[in-house]
Amino acid sequence: MKSTVYLTGIEEPEPRALFDSQTTGTKLRGAGKWSITHQRLVSGPSQGVEVVSLNNGRMSVAVVPTRGMGISRAQLGEIPLEWKSPVRRLVHPSLIDLGSRNGLGWLDGFNELLCRCGLSFNGPPGDDKGAKGGTESHVTLHGRTANTPAYRVHAEVEDAGQGTLSVTGMVDELTFFGPQLRLQSTVSTIAGSTAFTIRDEVENLASSPAELELLYHFNVGRPFLEQGSSVACPAKAVVPRDPRAAEGIDTFAAYLGPTPGYAEQVYFYEPLGDDKGESLAMLKNAHGHLGVSIAFNVRELPRFSLWKCTQADSDGYVTGLEPGTNYPNFKQYERDQKRVVLIPPGGKYTASVTITIHDTPQSVAEAEARIKKLQGSAAPQVHKTPQKGWSAAGDEA
Predict the structure, then answer these.
(1) What is the dotted CATH code of the domain comprising 1-214?
(2) Looking at residues 240-263, what average pLDDT do you find?
């Protein structure tokens, strides 16, 4: 049996239970106590921001429909899954000017655990002269979707199997003489599990093909990120984005502690999947007793980017594990490399990612074994310098 509640028009300064194990007759095999709560924030830059929290009895996940169905944080027992951005609070999209600071305004609201970069473009800002119809279009950092409120938001609980809690919302990226893309996103978690899944479907509502760039910016800080943490992702090749990344290529999979003045480094992977396309990347802490992984399918998300930003804690000590349809280069560059997806008129593109918290050494070891199996006997080709076709810096080398 499945039960649904629509959130339209609900205003609550405090969390309000939409479903819970105490007041509903729904029994979930995977958890004795569980809940789905809704809250509309009422102060400061967060005024009007809606948060839907899925508590599966073991782990909670905070979904933010107002910010494009992003995920602000998760919590497993006493273990937080988040990062500490200088942007302290969730920011309502009405306060974000994407064009400010020469197209870097997206950063003024950047503090989520997971946000989408896209839909029609991501990567750095600039003038896209290859836009549809030959007209020049100014694109801003990482697109519009993370700062577009969702509508038709509804929460569901289903008692089949272990039981599933979910929230679904629609996000439109529509403009006259431009993209007509509609995202339907569902965030779900199985009762009693340590994982949650995001399943996205992007539909082209236009009468002509539409370009899609979609990247999942999954950002992790302490306690998973620390001096001596490491990342693993099965890959055919790993390439530094630019000369700055090339400086750290010999230790690209290892992390420093908070380092004042650290300049970000980005590495592009050609990820490997199994015979069904399934792949897995994991960040583990220095002692190997904590880890967090992101599972994705290379047939849907064939690129993987690693963002290392181990600057001082006060500046935002963080790393990003980022599967996507493309690398976060400027859109025209990705178009030239044929990494921009074309969705036919009325067509749909689907992608999903699953985030799992590994809270025991055994769970971390099992994920590592899965990654090693995907890697196989051939080590990835690690390039020392940027490469042609991977980034503009590589073409210039």
Answers:
(1) 2.70.98.10
(2) 98
